Amino acid sequence: MKILLVNNRFKENTEIMAQEVAKKLLSQGCRVEVDNGEALPQLEDVDIIMVLGGDGTILRAARQYARFKVPLLGVNMGTVGFLSHIKVEEIETCLEKFVRGDYTVDERMMLKALVYRDGTLYKELGALNEVVVRTKVPRLLSLPLYIEREKIADYKGDGVIIATPTGTTAYSLSAGGPVLEPEMEALVITPVSSYVLARRPLVVRGDRVLALKNTGNGEEILCADGQINVDLLPGDEIIVQKADYKLRLLNIKKPSFFHHFDERLGRV
Question: Does residue 134 share a domain with residue 165?
Answer without folding.
Answer: yes
